[in-house]
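Tutorial, part two.
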Amino acid sequence: MPRSFSLCLLALAGWAAFPLLAQPVGEGVVLRGTLSSQALLGRDADTSWFTGGPGRLPVDHDDTNWFGEARLELEWRPRRAFGVAIWGLARSEAYDVGEDFGIGEAKMFGTFALGNAWQLNYTAGHYFPPTSMENTDPTWRSPYTRRFSVVNSWIGEEVRHTGVALALDREWGDQNSWLVEGSLLRGNDTQGTLLAWRGASISHRVSLYQEWLPLPALGSIRPGGVFALQDQRGTQPFGKELDDRWGWSARSAFEWRGRLYFQAQLNDNRGDRRLAGTQYVWETRYTHLGFSWDPDPSRNWTWLAEWINGESGMGDRTGAHVQIDFTLAYTLLSYRSPNRRWRFSARYDRVDIVDLDRKRLPVNPDAGDEDGNATTVSVVFHWRPNLQLDIEYNTASFERARLDNGPLQSDGAALGLGVLYRF
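Running the prediction step on this input gives:
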């Protein structure tokens, strides 16, 4: 879509929001959203994966890119036992990647009281897994940084729950709770494609329903390659069901006094590893751990950490196939001033991807081993309660194996200046 048309969409979204704010909303109806803009300056950065390069940041070497976005969410909850929510976005990006507008989430949800402090929660539809310690603001935004950790960059790109989840939740005392949850999921059959064929990234981007994302120019997926039947548009992280198999997820979470939070989640998409039309089905399973702690009662300090460890693969294991083990992790420390106008955050990320298929069968094409780390420093200033100014500095250093010429070293840094308006 032309950039000028996307800019028009953003402008129209902004003008439309203000009359809506002046109108009374009905009982149980919430309308909210954000308008944001950011200039991103690349420094010693490799060509971004957005344009076919090895760089993991959304900006090229010594380039300046502008990103604009509008998100709008409508939630209707007439009663505790039933609610619906949908949000979408329109965006303008420096690179012609994916879709410029679409749906982020669409779901039903509700809670039933069971007595003795127990309650039953349900969620059904297309939604983010409730695992992020970092992306806790409405429409899956982060209050800490603009660009997400390697954990949540991957979730934003390739992970969504499409299905139904049921959770038992017990609450007691002063903001104490314990939850167990089970989910049945569909439509996430290509999960793992980007990690195996491109690697991890540091990104602000959220993939939309049925959106296509580019893949690097690997020999195996080019015409004549062993995986040449892969769609030349790239990969579609979530869309129609490809192998007609249900995946599952199980999660448990514990909260103490509203300040200490632990959770663990197991995920298995149960992919059949076969070619379905023009996309391969990937078999992906992983464990996701999360931790959040506000050490002082005033909650000025926050410490977050998340860790994902799993495996992903496609193809017949006795022939040409892809198989990786992956570990993604980060830790983040944030300080918010007592007047709530300033927030300072620092984050460290680690990536480790091990290519197993070449160890098992040397004829397999492409090398997928990757080792990397990234750092982020961010300062957010709330000029007004609903108006935010921010500056952020990211560095990334990734080493990815190649079949010839030794490993590919991808280093880079980016400086971002942004403004965000909430309504």
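Residues 59 and 205 are 12 Å apart (CA to CA). In part three we will examine how such features are distributed along the chain.
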